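Task: sequence design from structure.
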């Protein structure tokens, strides 16, 4: 019998390895093993370096959600497939009880070039005997923010396409998703935290290794 994870007043420590997991309903669709930078009253900060171990939902022939129309995706058999993150190093900030996270990007490693706002359901933090993590549902609509704090929506076409399939789609209220984005836009345009330069000079602890495998329990039921 699986023990229900603890979800109240969870607080992680710098250096902890935790699972960052995405669900659609109760179905696990994406998971990666990430490093805790810090966790305090401002929120949770995570480090996701190039090469991070992860599992993503793919079809048997290796295609992902963005490789086909959504109408085809929902009718195709899919399975979680282990791989590694091939993008740039990412610093992720998740404010407490917020419907978004903010990703900081550097490329090359010493050059900060912008923020990515991921709109999502507020994450649930959890911990049990063998693992710990944060569980979210991605809301698809996102925002890109340049260093000069000009911004634009991302993936509007994906949101529009998928809303036409309400029996399969996990986003139920497009207006609320956009409203969350506009709340963040007010912070961006005013240069308020976290778009005020905080953490733009972050450098990871060089002693942090990149784990090779997901830990036992990575696919446990969603925390609520």
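Answer:
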């Amino acid at each position: 019998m699986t023990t229900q994870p603890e979800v109240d007043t969870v607080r992680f420590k710098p250096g902890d390895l935790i699972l960052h997991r995405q669900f659609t309903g109760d179905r696990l669709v994406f998971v990666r093993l990430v490093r805790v930078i810090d966790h305090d009253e401002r929120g949770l900060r995570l480090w996701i370096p190039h090469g991070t171990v992860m599992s993503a939902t793919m079809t048997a022939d290796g295609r992902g959600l963005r490789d086909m129309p959504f109408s085809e995706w929902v009718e195709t058999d899919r399975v979680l497939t282990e791989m590694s993150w091939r993008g740039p190093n990412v610093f992720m900030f998740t404010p407490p009880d917020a419907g978004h996270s903010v990703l900081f990007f550097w490329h090359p490693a010493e050059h900060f070039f912008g923020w990515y706002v991921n709109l999502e359901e507020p994450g649930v933090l959890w911990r049990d005997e063998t693992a710990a993590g944060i569980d979210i549902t991605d809301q698809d609509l996102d925002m890109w923010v340049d260093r000069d704090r000009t911004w634009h929506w991302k993936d509007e076409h994906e949101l529009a396409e998928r809303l036409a399939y309400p029996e399969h789609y996990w986003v139920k209220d497009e207006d609320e998703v956009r409203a969350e984005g506009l709340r963040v836009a007010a912070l961006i345009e005013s240069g308020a935290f976290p778009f005020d330069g905080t953490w733009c000079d972050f450098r990871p602890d060089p002693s942090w290794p990149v784990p090779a495998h997901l830990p036992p329990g990575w696919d446990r039921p969603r925390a609520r």
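The first strand starts at residue 17 and ends at 24.
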